[in-house]
Design brief:
The complex is a heterotetramer, with two copies of chain A and two copies of chain B. Chain A is α/β, with parallel strands linked by helices. Chain A has helices at 3-28, 43-50, 66-71, 76-83, 117-131, 149-160, 180-183, 193-196, 208-223, 255-263, 266-276, 282-305, and strands spanning 58-60, 137-142, 165-171, 174-175, 178-179, 199-204, 229-234. Chain B folds into two domains: 3-182, 3-Layer(aba) Sandwich (Rossmann fold), CATH 3.40.50.970; 196-323, 3-Layer(aba) Sandwich (Rossmann fold), CATH 3.40.50.920. The chains are: A alpha/beta, B alpha/beta. Bound molecules: thiamine diphosphate (2 copies) and magnesium ion (2 copies).
Chain lengths: 322, 325, 325, 322
């Protein structure tokens, strides 16, 4: 892989990490309202997958969606403004954290309903096939989603219709407090590919290169019309299910388990690898991070300075005028 | 004018729109070579083939959700749910995704999607195949709801639905599929939100949809013989809902009687009654009255079913009693 | 009397019924060691363990359907759906199976099943976590529907629900979980179908449920200062619905004003308006009025949300205007 | 296997066949109304499976449910009366063909919604486990159901909760007009057992002994607390999807295909086997069939002579009084 590409991957991960840390901070200060689910610890998945995508490719995202949005090209300022409920936000303040979308960037939306995006991404795949382009649709979803009916219906139908969809399971091993062990006898969800007759594999979701390579193959297959794939990325969420859960996550997992996963930080690992292989220096990385932080501060300022929507704006936008 | 069936009117509307726009396609169960569950008309499949007439497995959430994904990325799908009772298995997609997509994401996307589904059941279809749940969808902002009562309306409203950039729930009454009626050869569209006054009258305003329109019309014709003049209004679409036409009718008649096949409690009749009690109160001479199915699941046996859902006899006596004649 | 929170009242009701009947058990997402998604009260799990407090995967159709299968074979399940907007993924089981099971099979089975679910959303919960879809369930024959507005009602109604041999949809308002109120130590049950007159008055009857009860009460207290006497009625259960209490109130006041958080069109307010326009017409001095959420999905930003859903200010001005004062 | 048991199997199949033929006839004459889905050609499945069940075991059934009902002990007369919409029917005329249930016989109901019965049977399994009895719940469903969300949710949850449920897939290769080949890439649905980590197998659904043996094993495992199984029975429906479909089934399958399957008639095969092995004589079988036919005539007479429900009976039975 080219150095450029590798540095891009790092940058994407750093952008996500810093964004999420800032958001966590703002949520704690109640400057961001509503429920906020952070992606910290899982950055390699969104970054690795989306590095294979073009702007006109599609993704659907989840309640834990900031990372996907950033990785697909979402801009801090418009995201932040949305989280602040401002009219400059991606959804003009109507969506909030769980409902960011930008159709120009192919971001078909985060979703407050577990599994809600699965048939939608698949339908984008159908559209690609019918319009006969070489786009690809990527569907992000959690381990918790794998036991919901729409998972089954979506993968099955995308399989038999041979659609260009890549299903990316972010197996962070918990759905709120329910562990994969309580949720099913199968804990390696990529195995379910065989139930639909499609390709699939499992990767270390904290290894951005592994994620990149696996999804590259799947994306290329999809572009060539060779059908859908199921990629399972084993990873871990560092924070509570949502900001505000605080220490309640110790009711279902141990501090030790969390710390072990923090030790496997996808970003720290990747930084070490890049430095060791002389692809980038520690100084350069610091510089990168400074820039990102600066951009974030600007984004927060932008969000703060942006006008709130007028209350009556609530009445606008339900239907397209005809 | 030539007469064609309600079923053929539906197929013709889709065919014309498919001819016009290559983004239009249909998906659903048994709509291909089989030609549809309730009528055997494989015309679309024969003409447009497997790609644009897509038979699906029994995966209703996928049917709706795939259609939605396609709709927001350049296609104009017409999805079919085999009967409206099974919209229940696709409700998240319909209610939380399709209906909210545009608004929730800030109005930046078009959702040109039609969900066609038969409503109301045949006779003896029993509890799980006879429901009329239209009021649920009228309660969900973001969905347009159409309910044609004639071949003419079916064709004209469906063409409007397919051309629309907003999601439409299109309820076809299963007992009307074989009904024949005049449908012009020339292309036409019927706008949403315009009620149809089927019959003018001065004594009473009756609002009815779908199959009930026909039962009410028969009753109105009978009552005419007794010198009673009934105005019959079919809203045609529940969202948008043409309340003006109904309010001006009541201004004239002073009386409102609503008939529907859906269960009474929280049926769309409640909404009509409420609107009139709010905005047409001063025109009212008498209390409003609703005649609807009893609040029970539809029973199988003919005589119980016939008892449960308003039939002509019951409509006639209820109106007669209501008018105190 | 001691005061406990609405959340604790819910847990206490379940605990007491679990103590009494070993057939009672609970199932749902994150209800075990986590103690519930919206409040941290793992009391039931600690006391009754994994067998009777069953954490499930994210499989809502299974949650409801498994509960149903258990209910008709000797158990008394209390299923939890994490928020009512996702009842949409379990609608077939709720509407076509649970509600119809007894009737459709000839009345030969009991269905002692409770589905608890939070309704209405927190603030800033946005479009998919803020809905109030209670009128859907009132429209489906075969379901009882409860909607408590206080800790006292929550406990008493839930105990009745669990003891009932009929399926109950039990809506808990998410914004009330932390509300504290008096709840006696002694066991009690609140019967379904009895509206609660929270406040007597002669100028206007206001009907409201769940969180709206509190907003309306505050407004009524304010208006009292201006000499306006408002009667506030909380139906407590929508099915069965205590129309008598409301009709006799209107007989006294001559005016009906309905407030709800649900969207206006086809909300339960339409049903109340319709009943009164049918059966209480002659008592009415003025048109009926409904105040409800606008027909839009709930927007995220505070000021838009606050605009969309009736708040105290809007209730106050609407009532003041309505009374022409 | 004992002769008695074998003859019982034959008898069950014959009872189903004759019942269905009579019903088809009555439906054609419009003496039975509503939609009627016949089980002809698939008798070995219900007969073979239910031969392992006790009266207090549970089954759930489908729109094509008469066979399951008969095999689980349903009586002709009450079934027929239900189909006639009479108040003596199993559901007092409220249910009709798609909604026959009898809780005393453990028949938890046919279902007009594909998949509707899957979680219900599973919940009966949960109840068995919690009440700690050695009952078993059997869930019948078609190939069409295998691609619906409830299939997935039910099998997964029954697996992780280790419930005594036997899932019996009647793969007659079509869901109305849609063949399994159009419905999924996987055509052997028993393979999906691996997606849930449960036991399962495929059998010739026209071979009643094979069905019996496979389900015996599954039922015994369930009784012993060893969890759920998925059994796929390959079979075929001879008639149209419903009575009244008439020749429309030739739009999706050939006369030849139907005839080939008629040649594999589960009853004819089994008769030949029994006669060949001197377990029963052809005369005895004829006698048995005559008896069944006589019972059927009586059942029809019972149904015809039974009173129709009063129209107002429609208002009874929604809620249990309290
Ligand atoms: C259908 C549905 N059920 C339940 C919820 C409540 N809920 C929100 S997120 C979540 C857990 C999701 O777990 P997973 O899919 O593993 O994603 P993660 O949070 O781990 O990223 C749950 C249960 C929901 N939003 N939608
Ligand atoms: C959820 C749902 N979708 C669609 C239907 C309409 N429908 C009834 S039976 C049927 C085919 C079922 O096929 P299968 O499960 O293979 O059973 P078979 O008829 O072959 O016995 C369909 C599509 C339904 N009843 N329920
Ligand atoms: Mg997870
Ligand atoms: Mg089949």
């Amino acid at each position: 892989m080219e150095s450029n590409k590798l540095i891009e991957l790092l940058e994407k991960m750093l952008r996500i990490r810093h964004f999420e840390e800032k958001v966590g901070n703002l949520a704690a200060r109640r400057m961001i309202l509503g429920s906020v689910h952070l992606y910290i610890g899982e950055e390699a998945v969104a970054a690795g997958v989306c590095a294979n995508l073009r702007q006109n490719d599609f993704i659907t995202s989840t309640h834990r969606g900031h990372g996907h949005c950033i990785a697909k090209g979402g801009e801090f300022r418009f995201m932040m403004a949305e989280l602040f409920g401002k009219s400059t936000g991606y959804c003009q303040g109507k969506g909030g954290s769980q409902h960011i979308a930008n159709f120009d960037l192919g971001i078909l939306g985060a979703n407050g309903i577990v599994g809600g995006g699965m048939p939608i991404a698949s339908g984008a795949g159908l559209s690609i096939k019918m319009r006969n382009t070489d786009q690809v649709a990527v569907c992000f979803f959690g381990d918790g989603c794998c036991n919901n009916g729409v998972f089954h219906e979506s993968l099955n139908l995308a399989a038999v219709w041979n659609l260009p969809v890549v299903y990316v399971c972010e197996n962070n091993q918990y759905a709120v407090s329910v562990s994969v062990k309580q949720a099913s006898l199968i804990h390696d969800y990529y195995l379910r590919k065989d139930a639909y007759g499609i390709k699939g594999c499992q990767v270390d979701g904290n290894d951005v290169i592994a994620v990149y390579e696996a999804s590259k193959e799947a994306v290329e297959r999809a572009r060539k019309g060779e059908g859908p794939s199921l990629i399972e990325c084993k990873t871990y969420r560092w924070r509570g299910h949502y900001e505000g859960e605080f220490d309640r996550h110790y009711t279902y997992r141990t501090k030790k388990e969390i710390e072990e996963w923090i030790d496997k930080c996808p970003i720290a690992q990747f930084k070490a690898y890049l430095i060791e292989n002389n692809i980038i220096t520690a100084e350069k990385i610091d510089q990168l991070e400074e820039e990102i932080k600066r951009e974030l501060l600007e984004a927060v300022a932008f969000a703060e300075d942006s006008p709130a929507p007028k209350p009556e704006d609530a009445l606008v936008g339900l239907f397209e005028n005809e | 004018m030539r007469e064609i069936s309600y079923a053929d009117a539906v197929v013709e509307a889709i065919e014309e729109e498919m001819d016009k726009h290559e983004e239009v396609f249909v998906l659903g169960e048994d709509i291909g070579r089989y030609g549809g569950a309730y009528f055997a008309n494989p015309k679309l499949w024969k003409k447009f083939g497997d790609e644009r007439v897509r038979d699906t497995p029994i995966s209703e959430s996928a049917i709706v959700g795939f259609a939605l994904g396609a709709a927001i990325t350049g296609m104009r799908p017409v999805a079919e749910i085999m009967f409206s009772d099974i919209m229940t298995v696709a409700m998240d997609q319909i209610v939380n995704q399709v209906a909210k997509m545009r608004y929730m994401f800030g109005g930046n996307v078009k959702v040109p999607l039609v969900i066609r589904t038969p409503i109301g059941g045949f006779h003896n279809s029993a509890a799980q195949h006879s429901q009329s749940l239209e009021s649920w969808f009228a309660h969900v902002p973001g969905l347009k709801v159409a309910m044609p009562s004639s071949p003419y309306a079916a064709k004209g409203l469906l063409k409007t639905a397919i051309q629309s950039n907003n999601p439409v729930i299109f309820f076809e009454h299963i007992q009307l599929y074989r009904l024949k009626g005049p449908v012009p050869e020339e292309e036409y569209y019927i706008p949403f939100g315009e009620a149809n006054i089927l019959r003018e009258g001065t004594d009473l305003t009756v609002v009815a949809s779908a199959v009930m329109v026909h039962r009410v019309m028969n009753v109105a014709n009978k009552l005419e013989e007794q010198g009673i003049q009934i105005e019959v209004i079919d809203p045609q679409t529940l969202c948008p809902f043409d309340k003006e036409t109904i309010l001006s009718s009541i201004k004239k008649t002073g009386r409102l009687f609503v008939v529907h096949q859906a269960c009474k409690t929280c049926g769309f009749g409640a909404e009509i009654a409420a609107i009139v009690a709010e905005e047409g109160f001063d025109y009212l001479i008498d209390p409003i009255q609703r005649l609807a199915a009893y609040d029970i699941p539809v029973p199988f046996a003919s005589n119980m079913e016939d008892f449960a859902i308003p039939n002509e006899q019951r409509i006639l006596s209820a109106i007669t009693e209501f008018l105190g004649k």
